[in-house]
Amino acid sequence: MSNEFSRIARYFAPLAGEEGRGLTDDAAVLRPPPGRELVLTVDQMLEGVHFLKDDAPGLVARKLLRRNLSDLAAMGAEPLGYLLTTALPAGVDDAWLAAFAKGLEQDQAAFGCKLFGGDSSSSLHGISLSATFVGHVAPGAALSRNGAKAGDGIWVTGTIGDAALGLQARLGKLADESGVLTRRSELPEPRLGLKLAGLVTAAMDVSDGLVQDLGHMCKGSGLNGTILASLVPASAAAAALGAAVLEERLTGGDDYELLLAVPPGRAGALKAACGDVPVTKIGMFQTGMGVHVIGDDGKEMRFSKPGWKHF
Amino acid sequence: MSNEFSRIARYFAPLAGEEGRGLTDDAAVLRPPPGRELVLTVDQMLEGVHFLKDDAPGLVARKLLRRNLSDLAAMGAEPLGYLLTTALPAGVDDAWLAAFAKGLEQDQAAFGCKLFGGDSSSSLHGISLSATFVGHVAPGAALSRNGAKAGDGIWVTGTIGDAALGLQARLGKLADESGVLTRRSELPEPRLGLKLAGLVTAAMDVSDGLVQDLGHMCKGSGLNGTILASLVPASAAAAALGAAVLEERLTGGDDYELLLAVPPGRAGALKAACGDVPVTKIGMFQTGMGVHVIGDDGKEMRFSKPGWKHF
User: Fold this and answer.
1) What is this model's ipTM?
2) A–B interface: beta-carbon pairs under 8 A
3) Which CATH number fits the domain A4-137, given the four candidates 3.30.1330.10, 2.60.40.10, 3.30.1360.70, 3.40.50.970?
4) What is the pTM of this model?
5) CA-nearest residue of chain B to A119?
6) Measuring CA to CA, how many Å separate B162 from each of B73, B150, B185, B189?
7) Nearest 5°: phi and psi at B279?
8) 10-residue mean pLDDT series, chain B (311 residues)
């Protein structure tokens, strides 16, 4: 096993942008894009909490980047690069690191971002990772979860609940013959590049589960949000599992779709802005407070858990 | 015990600058200071690796900030603010968090920086923390560890080795009647605000031990660095322990003093730039490669460990 510094030189320095200065200095130096505001976000992933010991290292790396990229997408920002922390127990070998770095490289290329710097440490128990991302937006154009208005429609991108079902499949609790659900759990698709500024009044990504995250948007905006369960878009694989998985779909986490508040009359413009990414109206914001989910029987649904729990 | 979101609202939201948007959005928005470059750095602290379970939470918080601030100091940067990650096991109660947040508040005020955002998680084993700092410098003025030239003097700020001895004291392996050594181990003093740009050819902070960090500077600059052990400044408390602790002082970590390469003829200007902070010349850079430490007997010293090892 190579030591900390040769590991940085071998696996991480090739991923660094010029801002990272070869990863030999104490910090990165970034020239901010002229006339832009910067958007900063950090997410961590811990073994046993956010991923499982035997998960493929490349997929862990890519999910780490994509969870952060989803936060940038939720702010309407474009990515620049990131700082990485790794805390690795003694048993993590160079093969793990090589596969992890390969995953970083793959998604750096896919999303146009570079490694700016980081910190590595030993760990007594399990792998601990974090990425701090830097993105940029036009001045004043950053989206917020707190701006929804009464009368706005509640919209979501993509399909909801696949990742939570995929996690069940990965834990052996659910059959996933197509592998679609598993894939969504392993490798989310950050919804970058949608031109939402000026079109939506609020945005956030669905990471903790639709019901809980809608609750955050309602609380932040001082509103009631009511959605119809039947309108919440399901993938074919999730739909095939029927009503038995509805609660899991609505409350499970890790989808990384965008939840949007959209004023009336903008459905066409929203769909145009989202291009190939499907967007679906699932409800409305109204005066009041809290989240209401109306089931197929017309009655309000009650949930045994409000949102995503860690493993 | 309060839940994740009420903990954020109670303990961390009051620490947030306007960039943090009340810590309710997916990311922070930063307007870069006009005409400045940004400096980005991240450091993590793990229970059992970087701090001990029973360490005072306020001191852990302040050391987390100060280790990062020291990286900014090594780049010649001024701090703006930071993102924080916390991964906390179930046993961490609100009293711990309140004391931790109080420590953050104290050093935010002391060093003029604000909380921009973060991420909180549960942890299966021990407390895991990180801070990503944003600072700023004049364009092109960021220092580097890689610019030393043959003939430059090797200088350090403050005194070297106190923190390593303080750690020994905290572990009960050494007497520290004055408490000075313990204090240096618990609460480093980042050397911010020294006007080193244009004066030094290389800079870094001494975090992994003088010998190892000088080795990094030599490697980065393609030079040999030779220092005289007798010139390496000791505090009164360390000096009182005599030659028995010399190796520990030269190789132990956590000092967070600055290691500087200074061309000949600049001693007066350097001292003026450092004001109240003492600076001491301890050796020279020459052509060649590697680190040589000359002992009191005129012979090269050999070390059983090259630098700081984690607990």
Assistant:
1) 0.93
2) 198
3) 3.30.1330.10
4) 0.94
5) B43
6) 19, 29, 7, 12
7) -130, 140
8) 78 91 89 93 95 94 98 97 96 95 98 96 94 97 96 98 95 93 95 96 96 94 96 97 95 96 98 97 96 94 66 43
